[in-house]
Write a structure and sequence with these properties.
single chain; Diaminopimelate Epimerase, Chain A, domain 1; 3 domains; six-stranded mixed beta sheet; globular; inorganic pyrophosphatase (n-terminal core); 17 helices; alpha/beta; five-stranded parallel beta sheet; 440 residues
């Protein structure tokens, strides 16, 4: 991998303008920030844009918009660039499953080096390695590596593999603490806007959250970092009880606590940076948050307002979807009002609302001809054989669409009107994968 990264960096150093295409989500946008700051330091001009439709045809079209430029595709690309196999100045930094093919550019995918792209490396991991290869002084881009890791939920249960090695090597300058996994200017904001963890009686309920904290003898306007150890233990026990009442899985309970990193120079914790980037990305405000973290402080308040807007919408949509869930014998599904949030809604429902034996699938039919599909499972399901990348790939293909992703989270697109056929096929594949997991 190191040799491949060196070759890719040398290719970029020879050019004065680079096209960057990033997946539109929190991991992809974190990756874009890393690459943008690294390219600025190299004195290379660049243009960043974001991809949502992950098909070979769509990717080819996006790259051909600036075909004369060298292009870096991050947090996507390995499974979408078969139609661009002749472009030698194309660099892919990815971590998703894909089917190998002949490629004349640089397809640098974590999985090709024995690294688990679901738990050990995300898009931001690959972007950070690229930046470090260019110049190790780029190690100070560590906050955005962590943002991608958190956005991709590769921090649950602690970092492992390559992510852990990067943390050990470059994370030492930053103050870390094990604490409750909430973020915001104070406890009232952190809890009332919390989406991961999601608290059924508190998230989206500002007055209820205020009363909850006052009953515990904790000042609602108190900063999370200023809690005493006694207050922290008291609050954590009560929050755990709230989750237990929701009958969540052990996986969701584990996410109540996290290793929080404080980035003093940025004025935010790792959780807050990840939340800001992911929240802005999911409401199509990627450019605003990239602008801010590339140095334009004038949009700081806009970034924070966008983050609140995203969380409010997600809470509202998740509550709505939870009341309109459908199921077949091996899967659960819902229809989302917003295609860019279907994955977030599915993830929230999977961990905090739904039957823990079967994966959740979300549909959005906003386009005239295409239905977008997002799916989420749990780590426990994956250990028992679930691979949603295969489910999405095969079920989408069976109805003339295309899909893929991770074993625990994947997505795709299908022709509108083919939803029932897709569900039947997806249900059958999941049944084969989870033969003895709640499927008696």
């Amino acid at each position: 991998m190191a040799e491949s990264l060196k070759q890719a960096v040398e290719l970029i150093k020879e050019r004065d303008y680079v096209n960057v295409l990033a997946h539109y989500d929190g991991d992809g946008t974190s990756s874009a920030i890393i690459l943008g700051r690294a390219l600025l330091r190299m004195g290379i001009k660049f243009h960043i844009s974001y991809v949502k439709e992950l098909t070979p045809e769509a990717m080819k079209s996006r790259v051909e918009e600036n075909i004369e430029l060298p292009t870096i595709i991050v947090d996507a690309g390995s499974d979408q660039c078969s139609l661009l196999s002749e472009k030698k100045d194309l660099i892919i930094l990815d971590h998703h499953f894909y089917s190998p093919y002949e490629f004349k550019g640089h397809n640098i995918n974590a999985r090709d080096y024995g690294i688990d792209g679901t738990k050990e490396a995300c898009g931001a991991t690959m972007a950070y390695l690229f930046a470090l290869t260019a110049d190790e002084t780029n190690s100070d881009l560590f906050p955005f590596f962590m943002s991608g890791v958190i956005s991709d939920k590769q921090d649950i249960g602690g970092l492992v593999g390559l992510n852990r090695k990067l943390m050990e090597r470059f994370g030492s300058p930053y103050r870390k603490t094990r604490t409750i996994n909430i973020a915001g200017e104070n406890l009232l904001e952190g809890l009332s806007y919390s989406v991961d963890p999601f608290f059924g009686n508190l998230s989206g309920n500002r007055e209820g959250t205020r009363n909850f904290l006052l009953e515990l003898g904790i000042e609602p306007e108190k900063r999370i970092s200023d809690l005493t150890e006694d207050e922290k233990r008291k609050l954590e026990k009560r929050l755990a009880l709230e989750l237990i009442k929701q009958k969540v899985s052990l996986e969701a309970l584990k996410y109540l606590e996290t290793d929080m990193i404080f980035f003093e120079s940025l004025g935010f914790t790792s959780k807050e940076i990840a939340g800001m980037i992911d929240g802005n990305s999911k409401i199509s405000q990627n450019g605003v948050v990239v602008q801010y973290f590339l140095g334009d402080s004038s949009v700081r308040q806009l970034c924070l307002d966008n983050w609140r807007k995203f969380r409010s919408k997600l809470i509202e949509f998740a509550r709505q979807a939870s009341k309109e869930m459908f199921s077949l014998s091996r899967i659960q599904y819902f229809y989302a009002p917003d295609s860019e949030m279907a994955g977030s809604i599915a993830g929230l429902l999977m961990l905090y609302y739904s039957n823990q034996n079967f994966p959740v699938i979300g549909f959005n039919s906003g386009d005239d001809h295409i239905t977008k599909v997002s799916s989420r499972g749990t780590a426990r399901m994956v250990r028992k054989g679930l691979n949603l990348s295969i489910v999405m790939r095969d079920a989408c293909l069976s109805v003339g669409g295309r899909g893929g992703g991770h074993d625990i989270a994947a997505g795709g697109t299908i022709p509108k009107g083919k939803e029932r056929e897709f569900l039947t096929r997806a249900n059958a594949i999941v049944s084969e994968q989870l033969t003895d997991f709640g499927c008696k």
